[in-house]
Amino acid sequence: MGAGQSTPAPPPTAANMGADLKTSGDAAKPKPCCVCKDEKAARDECMLFSKTDNAQQECADLVTKYKTCMAGYGFKI
User: Where is this region: Disordered (predicted)?
Assistant: First the structure.
């Protein structure tokens, strides 16, 4: 190879496929869609299938549980 030419990048392997991904502290934080699934499902079911006129009041405890769970992972709702 002459001056000013660079060597080609090696082919992707299992060891280097994620090398270009961001490796900051965010890597340890899960995505919001992947946590508190049970709490979210219970909250959604309560809100969708409520037979009262005020589903927000009826499901307030489930909403609180979901918010608490999400806060435990660092998410603010």
Answer: 1-30
pLDDT tens digits, residue range 31-44?
999 999 999 999 99
Q: How many helices (H) and strands (E) does the chain have?
A: 3, 0
The domain segmentation of the chain, as residue ranges, is 30-72
This model's pTM is above 0.70: no
Residue range 66-77: average pLDDT?
A: 95
Write phi, then psi, for 51 (nearest 5 degrees): -105, 5
Q: Which of 34-39's residues contact partners 24+ apart within 8 Å by CB, and which partners?
A: 35/69, 35/70, 35/73, 35/75, 36/66, 36/69, 36/70, 36/73, 39/65, 39/66, 39/69
36 known member of a binding site? no
| Token pair 């002459």 in the structure block, residue | 2
Q: Using an 8 Å Cβ cutoff, are 32 and 70 in contact?
A: yes
